[in-house]
Amino acid sequence: MDTRTENVSLEDLQKIVGEEHAREATDEDAVDGVMPQFVAEPGSVEETSELMKLANDGGLTVAPRGSGTKMGLGNPPRDLDLIVSTVRMNEIIEHVPGDQVVRVQAGVRLDDLQVQLATEDQMLAVEPPERGAGATIGGIVAANSSGPLRYRYGTIRDLIIGITVVLPDGTIAKAGGKVVKNVAGYDLGKLFTGSLGTLGIIATCNFRLHPRPEAGQTVAVELGDTLSAGQAAQAMVHAQLVASAVELHWSEDHKLLTVLIEGIPPGVEDQVETASYLLKGFGDVRTLSDEEVKYLGPLDPPRVGDEDVAIKIAHPPVELTGVLDSILGATERRGVTPRITGHAGTGITYVALSGGDEIARVQAVDELREIWVRRGGSVVVQKAPVQAKKMLEAWGPAGDYLGLTRRMKDKFDPRGILNPGRFVGGI
User: Fold this and answer.
1) Could you read off the pLDDT of 302-319 as tens digits, one per residue?
2) Does the domain made of 16-85 have the CATH classification 3.30.160.340?
3) I want to staple 182 with a disulfide (CB 3.0 to 4.6 A). Which of 177, 215, 321, 394 is the partner?
4) What is 92-126+134-211's CATH number?
5) How far is CA 127 from the centre of its chain?
């Protein structure tokens, strides 16, 4: 492989990060079939800044990467020269248990952070589906990935209180602080959350923490039909319960609504009894073992086949029955098999589409978009073969949001060197 682009060589990158931390890309580094030239692993914010200055001056297109669990999200890039990996930026910089805050580098794996926080009986209250695959803090923030606990604690956007980013021209920008009540510059943290590395590279993040619950139990109800699913979910949403999660698991093997109750042991027991009483009108109720909960699992990439199309439908929680009916109808007519999970209490439903042929899976997604975008929701393709992505456009219609997104992209990345083409509207 040629070790030089038109303006930048491998040696130029190695001068910044060290010879052993910059290399030629391999097939494993391709993003949706687009092959980069180089991979560089900065060890600090300053090295990241120097890399971006070099890329900007040399006209390199860049994709940030943590552990790679979200590299399949978004459209295929129009172009890609350099991957900037945060794998070496894996330091927990500061943990202040008394203030319930933590500051970490972007390459810290969530699992490693949770282990450290657990020594003080604290946690970062997110549980994204990619956690088991080694998801990093920077990737979780960039993708705004959350999980079941969003029902009680909100998403990662609600937990971030400070951020340091490296802009495309190498400028280091900071916003927010180390205390929960400090909101100066907080919007920059919100802006970069969910931006998929299109505005800058996330270097460090500050978060507010929560106490780890002393106990937890999961109550499940076996559902008979889609109507009972929607009704059971709404019964939990409007109940006088402090649930941590209200989840749906719907496949050929099982049709369950589960409710996670956490807290101190006596309170958990009382709320489990209440939840069980409220759910028994919708089907058989039981308390799940830890093994059963783990078996159900999230709809994460390792459990989605290479030829499957995985989508995320955002909708009003009250519309859960309608969402299920539309999924089952669209797939049955085309011979496609759906596996459905979701955050039933917050209106997020995930679907893995398998079986049938590629055209059938694409048509099913198109039909669901026609229904739910018109009703104010969204249908985002989270994972799919490259050819299916080209037929679908990963993000779907952006509406009025697209204009704002383009203005932000023009402001932060006027040369369009970061993840070109991967985000909403092909920006």
Assistant:
1) 467 788 999 999 999 999
2) no
3) 177
4) 3.30.465.10
5) 10
